[in-house]
Design a protein that fits this description.
Helix content: over 70%
Number of domains: 1
Radius of gyration: 21 Å
Largest sheet: none
Amino acid sequence: MQHLHHSASGSFGPVLLTLILLLSAITYLRGWFALRSTSTVRGWRAFSLVFGLLLICVAVASPVAALDHELLTVHMLQHVLLMTLAPPLIWLGEPAAVLARGVPRPFLNPIAYLSKRPQIGKLGRFLVQPQVCWLAASAVLVIWHIPAVFRLGMKSEALHMFEEGSFLVAGLLFWWPVVQPWPSASTLDLSIILYLFFATIPCDILSGFLVFCDRVIYPSYLSSSHLLGFSALGDQQCAAALMWTCVTIVYLIAGVVVSMHLLSPRNCREHVALDCDLRAYVFASPQNVEALHGD
């Protein structure tokens, strides 16, 4: 039986999402070309962000995404792309700094005004606290893999879209303290290594349970076509192994990179230079924003 959220062929959702991602990439590249002469906004940052957006598109708006109702492995791949791979790539692109130059001036002025509101700043500082980010990511991972909640997401197109969005948002929150994109201050320390280590625990528990369980936890896949010759139980074990392996490797790489960053004063100086170059631009008055645009 086909799941409800795939029953309406030709859904406009993937098309709309693709257009949004394409518009975001174009706006970002517009800003990057305007700032490419600065040493702090390097070309690899643009590649990182665009590739991150591409991974989101693959996860939710590609032919691969249409198979998530057939294979739990594909469904788990979506979660890995949305929560583990795309968010750090997007943050490494320094999107706030570059988009501030790419967004057309009529739209930038109200954004700059809102960014200076005390309530917005207080909310932002609360959301990017490591403990909040860790709890948000862990809660999203655990809740959406509860069988009853999982079943609801598979039956409702709207709820399934909300599920995918929650994984992306939780991923963006989780990776903020690790990447610390502009305009956050560079406060990396050894606690981030522990942050990454403890973040693997919910994933390890869930993945281990699914790998070693001798029954199918998500009955929705009992009636699937079992592509690639997988049984429902084999598909479940493959999905869990995929998540277990990918998350462990990515977090390990992130831990190594953070360690190298802590040992490299040069990286710290580059972060400070980026902050000095662009903070005045984003939080400038409308008159100064117009002057900085140079038109």
